Amino acid sequence: MVPDSCWYSNLRSLLSPAQWDIVRKEAYARADGRCMICGAQTRRLEAHERWEYDEKNCVQTLADVVAICKSCHEVIHIGRTQLIGREREAEAHFMKVNNCSYAEYRRALGEATETHRRRNKVAEWSLDLSYLKKFC
Fold it and tell me: 66 has which bridge partners?
């Protein structure tokens, strides 16, 4: 989960619409019509940023932009998904994709929540967008 202080600072807001189109369309091309997480074939893929966190040096690094299906995106953004009333669908998708039980889902969610809590202790993250150099 993205630390609270990094919310709303996504690529879409940092890049021009034309630049964002280049980045997301490159991810769609790599995906070739399939979700890069669950492998489902879909006509509509969504771009998702993958970030890595160096907690010691307080650096948030863009690692990749992947093309994923709506269901996987709802799992990743479970907090938002809960707010719109689709938590049960997201839970079911997670359990299906990971071939796991509800207890294992809850354990994974607890681990993600703990990581989120720990990363929130960092007051300010520096941003590393060197991933984008390949698009220049």
Answer: 48
pLDDT tens for each residue of 48-73: 999 999 999 999 999 999 999 999 99
Contact between residue 37 and residue 13 where contact means Cβ atoms under 8 Å apart: no
| H/E segment holding residue 99 | none
- Indicate yes or no: pTM above 0.85: yes
Please report the sign of the dihedral spanned by the C-alpha atoms of residue 105, residue 95, residue 3, residue 7.
negative
Cα dihedral sign, 6-7-11-15: negative
Q: In what order do the strands lie in the sheet with 126-128?
A: 46-54, 59-68, 126-128
What number of H helices and E strands is found in the chain?
Answer: 6, 3
How far, in Å, CA of 2 to CA of 112, rounded? 10
